[in-house]
Amino acid sequence: MALRSLKVLELSGLAPVPFCGMLLADYGASVIRIDRKDDQHNTRLDRLARGKRSISIDLKMPAAIDIFRRLSSQADVLIEPFRPGVMEKLGLGPDVLLNDNKRLIYTRVSGYGQNGSLAMKGGHDINYLSISGLLSMFGRSNKKPHAPLNLAADFAGGGLLAAYAIMSAIFERQTTNLGQVLDLSLAEGSAYVSSWMWTSRDLPMVWFGNQRGENLLDGGAHFYDTYETSDGLYMAVGALEPQFYNQLLIGLGLAPNDEDHHQMNINKMKKKFEQIFKTKTQQEWTEIFNKLDACCTPVLNWNSAYKYKHNQERENFSLTNENKTKLVPIPVPKFSLSKLPSINRPAPFSGEHTIEILHEIGYSKENIEQLIKNNIVQNTERSKSKL
């Protein structure tokens, strides 16, 4: 497995940090999630915990701090999701933990970064997008900005960038033998993943004007948009290049050599496309465009994406063992040599592996019994293994 020897500590949170931990676990890293004692709410909401182990400890107790420091002294990576200063107040800031373990990659994932006027403020994906400049670019013409769920900040600019930064720091550590602190702001990550949108602003063939929804890739072009079919479903059209556009016109029953069909009259062509697409079902259009190279594909929902022929051939989705109706995407990219763990590894209950992990870091049976008795650590029912 690609990351087999990597040891990761993930402090429990939601969205970006669990996603980062899942990416590392899916490629073979050993990921321990540090859960707060008696906090079942966040762990129930965390749907990105497959293949991880969980230890539940009360970090307000000095003995729990000792446990955490012992864990981090043996780890390669720590990922924490708190506002600036929280870890320092616990006595677990980077100065302390890097002194214990000079090779530790201390990864801080916060909304606005470790400093700046917004650093101590709360926020969510939509807020991070708003100050990054990215939110202003999402939405239809003459409509208010519209956030694309929480993909851009939490997952693209957050968890995915964090995993990339961690691997970069580990690569550098091979030369320096030193860990370091990674300060990842979700707002800055959002801006970074939108770099192309910033650097392409001077391309008139992409940006027709300054208004969102009126440009090449945001719904302003009739050949790059979605269209409703007769059964209330949709087709996605991305026929940017002339050769694809010609094939699109053929599929729609329009003459590709008709100059009128090549004019950039957005309203005229959109209305024509809307009318034509509504004459057939999504399946009928799919069958037509499967025979053409027109960049025209069906807009699939969760269930239909799984059943789609190409996705079946590539095995792009899988049903989980926990619930045979729950679909999940498989890890990508596919490796030619490295064998990756199954995605059907169960997510842990909070504290499920407390006893197991304490044993691994040197605590005796008597020590563990005392820690449980004193409510410093928590052991869940599913982990009723023998001490």
Automatic annotation (TrEMBL):
Family label: Belongs to the CoA-transferase III family.
GO cellular component, one term: mitochondrion
Matches recorded under PANTHER family: ALPHA-METHYLACYL-COA RACEMASE, SUCCINYL-COA--D-CITRAMALATE COA-TRANSFERASE
Sample GO molecular function, one term: alpha-methylacyl-CoA racemase activity
Record-linked Pfam families: CoA_transf_3 (PF02515)
Protein's GO biological process: bile acid metabolic process
Protein name per UniProt: Alpha-methylacyl-CoA racemase
Gene3D superfamilies tied to this protein: Crotonobetainyl-coa:carnitine coa-transferase, domain 1, formyl-coa transferase, domain 3
InterPro entries on file: CoA-transferase_III, CoA-Trfase_fam_III, CoA-Trfase_III_dom3_sf, CoA-Trfase_III_dom_1_sf
Alphabetical list of SUPFAM superfamilies matching this protein: CoA-transferase family III (CaiB/BaiF) (SSF89796)
